[in-house]
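Re: weekly structure request thread

Next one in the queue (496 aa):
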Amino acid sequence: MNNLRDSKTARWTALVFLAFAMFCAYIFMDILSPVKSILESTRGWDSTAFGTYAGSETFLNVFIGFLIFAGIILDKMGVRFTALLSGFVMILGAAINWYSVTEMFVGTGLEAWFNHNLNYIPGFDELGVSPFYRGMPASAKLASVGFMVFGCGVEMAGITVSRGIVKWFKGKELALAMGSEMALARLGVASCMIFSPLIAKANIFGGANVSHSVAFGVLLLIIAFIMFIAYFFMDKKLDAQGIAEEKDDPFKVRDIGKIFASSGFWLVALLCVLYYSAIFPFQKYAVNMLQCNLGFSETQAGTVFAFFPILAAIITPFLGNFIDRRGKAASMLMLGSILLIVCHLIFAFVLPMFRPEIAANGEVIGEASMAGIVLALTTILILGASFSLVPASLWPSVPKLVDSKVIGSAYALIFWIQNIGLWLFPLLIGKILTSSNQDVINSTIIDDKFKPVLYDYTNPLVMLACLGAVALVLGFILKIVDKKKGLGLELPNIKK
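Done, posted below.
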């Protein structure tokens, strides 16, 4: 007897519910990235405050180990319960985030409390990993709290959606379904880069106010929760037909020893944290970087940078298919790292050559040249290609490096290591921007035109290029280890 997932319409409908929920989640993840300059002028967030906020998303996952708890919840309670829980947690964190940047928060007792508290956290301050600091704006502190909560929800949603896709597509179009979900999520980032500045600066809402963009993001997360509810009933009906989800073995502490004994695992894990640390934290600052290096407005910069996730979404499935059939995963990792290095160095040293003249008062005279725009767009497209090369090569390589019995634990550890970089490097970029631009910051008068501080992004971009250089070296070592031990990284995934 056929079950519900044997119906192509039914299983792809289930995927739409799951994928659209992640589309909304990825929009909120970067909702404030393209309006960094408005946050600076209207809420007093300097680059250090913004970087601390950006890194807070993964703070609880890194230091409290929430990723492991999320996996346990999913294993014990199943996809339906965990999807609804993750949706609720995302909305809760997003609502806190929204309130922190509204006018309602200004002048309240809560704002006063945040100004006078959380300036010193025992243990975390001594280790230099505190999520707050003395002098951090109260709105940024509360926004960071909300982003931490949201980060727990979105990571839980990510592993839950993957489990749900496996349940509905095992033995069918599983790779295509997962690739489609990832592509839609990246399109969420692209759309966010375009519409967030437009909504924040829309006169219809009373002028520049970032809370309008965040409010729209909260609305999208409510829609995502409705998508999870719709999936709940579809999945329950599938269970009633005798199709239960397949569950990985739960994470066990003793698995760590087996995984850590693999040199290949360490190389891939370090490649992962280095590469993604040079991409996702950069994504938080990319719009502001284009503003500073080419004199773009938030809207113009957001529209140009949107091509990065769009291209990545388009070509990732094709690259994955190539590696499935032709192999060369280790070589692709090295090529991706080379492209990453080149792009960040172009952003750092070549792009500023095309910036319009800057007056003594900090005003941009004229507009960016067509050559500068073409160079920026071309470099962003190359970076998008690099972003497609590495994930398509990296994740399918893990099963070749560790025992199949501990594959779930291996992925959990890689995600945890990756989250360390996603917490650390947004913070570092913000601190480097602030420390290396003191003259610019002190000489810029922020007025009611919301004029951005025109930062020099050279030092942060060089740091990100260095991450790519180390990743390239590790990719070369991985290729040598693969050849020596016969790991099969250069071989096709599809066996003939």
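DSSP finds 19 helices and two strands in the chain. Strands lie at 357-358, 364-365.
Next request, please.
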